């Protein structure tokens, strides 16, 4: 059987500690409010499921599917809406949950799309942020980790559809 052990960039323990802190901050900031959490598929599914368990506020959960990378390691420059949310966000507090802000194109596109629907407030939680790649200015309200310019995989993030199941954030090496 083919074996691989990608290099660990951020361990399971580090991720769990950071998510605990993010959950506490979100709980505090949304005191007395309800939330619509929007998980950006596919990459954010693990982060989102762990994060919402640490947010002690009434919430509903929605999923949206956007993609820009296709099979490669470079953003294609176009964002495709593959699946929309199913609720009306007008007048609601929205928390977008992303796995990574890279060029910022996905989030910029999603923010513009949601703004047209009249939400009360839209905030962003992203597990990772790669400042060296940023092309579109994005405000990350709740950030897990700022990382250097390496192609990261695991904890929901993929390379050509693989590695999402790794419990940590790893680095894709030539040998993998
Ligand atoms: C990845 C990631 C973010 C986006 C970030 O999604 O999950 O949504 O790219 O890149 P950007 O800031 O340059 O837009 P991808 O298109 O790979 O789809 P996936 O989440 O289904 O893997």
Summary of the model, kept short:
The chain is of the alpha/beta class.
CATH class: Alpha Beta
- Can you name the CATH architecture? 3-Layer(aba) Sandwich
Structural class: alpha/beta
For the sheet with most strands, the description reads: 6 strands, mixed
Low confidence ranges: none
CATH topology, by name, is: Rossmann fold
Hetero ligands:
1-O-pyrophosphono-5-O-phosphono-alpha-D-ribofuranose
Shape: globular
The span between the termini is 14 Å
Secondary-structure element pattern, one letter each: EHEHEEEHEEEE
Summary keywords:
binds 1-O-pyrophosphono-5-O-phosphono-alpha-D-ribofuranose; 9 strands; 176 residues; alpha/beta; Rossmann fold; 3-stranded antiparallel sheet
Can you describe this structure?
- The protein has 176 residues and is α/β, with parallel strands linked by helices.
- It has one domain (12-150): 3-Layer(aba) Sandwich (Rossmann fold).
- It contains 3 helices and 9 strands; from the N terminus they run E-H-E-H-E-E-E-H-E-E-E-E.
- The chain has a 6-stranded mixed beta sheet, with helices on both faces. A 3-stranded antiparallel beta sheet has the order 1-9-8.
- Helix 3 (105-115) links the parallel strand 5 and strand 6.
- Helix 1 crosses helix 2 (45-52).
- The chain is globular, with a radius of gyration of 16 Å.
- The two termini are 14 Å apart.
- The mean pLDDT is 92.
- The structure holds 1-O-pyrophosphono-5-O-phosphono-alpha-D-ribofuranose.
